[in-house]
Amino acid sequence: MKTLACALILLSAATAAHAEDAVASGRIIDAAIGDWNKDGKPDLALLVAPAPGDDADNPIGVYIYLRDDEHSLLKLAVSAPHKIWGSVEPGGVVGQEPSISALPNGSIAITSQNDSIGRDRWEQTLTLAYRNNNFVVAGYTYESRDTLEPESSHSCDYNVLTGKVTKDGKTLKADARTVSIQDWQDDIGQKACGNDQ
């Protein structure tokens, strides 16, 4: 809760580049603070619920702010709506809440999940890294389990930048790619892991 309060304070100091990129504070569902571009200044990453009436399959947006060199104010660096699946209502479904966190190496982890409804339970994590002035999906991790057939559990870790895939303990190879968070689709990771979605 302390992190979210700090994030809201930092966001209030930010100026959006365009009016359509402005994020209403009531739609922020999670936040992380870290030094994404390694300039020694704290930056901000947000998960934002959709505007009322938006019925997209992946309703949650990812917004990343970096410090301006001259004024030390946050400026919007990434606007990626409709990227993450999950429950966004405070009284919503437990076990379907997404989260965002800062990793010790300066990357960002975004997790979505279904650990509450149906027999097919899963958790997915996107790892974002700052490369060449852009935020790219460096890693994709997906774990699934069937509550009625526990032996049908699967795990997959795809290093998107190198193409190395570890699926159920076996090393595989997929295409090495550089994909910005704006261009990312979960089908990329599912295909690399050999899963049908």
Describe the structure.
The chain is mainly beta and 197 residues long. The chain has two domains: 1-94, no CATH class; 118-197, no CATH class. Helices cover 10% and strands 42% of the residues. It contains two helices and eleven strands, in the order αβββββββββββα. The strands form two sheets. Strands 5-6-7-8-9-10-11 form a seven-stranded antiparallel beta sheet, covered by helices on one side. A hairpin with a 4-residue loop joins strand 9 (154-159) and strand 10 (164-167). It is globular, with a radius of gyration of 17 Å. It starts with a helix and ends in a 5-residue tail after the last helix. Residues 4-20 have low confidence and may be disordered.
Summarize the structure.
Helices cover about 10% and strands about 40% of the residues. It has about 200 residues and is mainly beta. The strands form 2 sheets. Strands 5-6-7-8-9-10-11 form a 7-stranded antiparallel β-sheet, covered by helices on one side.
What is the strand and helix layout of this fold?
Elements: H1 2-13, E1 28-34, E2 43-48, E3 60-67, E4 74-84, E5 99-102, E6 108-114, E7 120-131, E8 134-146, E9 154-159, E10 164-167, E11 170-173, H2 186-192
Antiparallel strand pairs: 1-2, 2-3, 3-4, 5-6, 6-7, 7-8, 8-9, 9-10, 10-11
Strands, total number: 11
Report low-confidence residues grouped into runs of 5 or more: 4-20
Order of helices and strands: HEEEEEEEEEEEH
Secondary structure class reads mainly beta
What's the arrangement of strands in the largest beta sheet?
5-6-7-8-9-10-11
Gross geometry? globular
